[in-house]
Write a structure and sequence with these properties.
about 60 residues; alpha+beta
């Protein structure tokens, strides 16, 4: 799937400028650096992404 076919969402919890964006095509979650939008992105399963979000809510990185 091409980037122009995806809807990217910027994290609403970032206040440092170090943000990630996510897109959710069917069956996966794509993650990319908001400052390098044409750079690499990773693909994870929706359940793995949910686990990551739950972990991030309880840990300060």
């Amino acid at each position: 799937m091409r980037d122009d076919e995806l809807t990217w969402q910027l994290s609403s919890y970032t206040d440092s400028g170090a943000c990630v964006e996510v897109a959710r095509p069917a069956g996966e979650v794509l993650v990319r650096d908001s400052k390098r939008r044409t750079g690499p992105r990773i693909s994870v399963t929706p359940s793995s992404f949910a686990d990551l979000v739950d972990w991030a809510k309880t840990h300060q990185v």
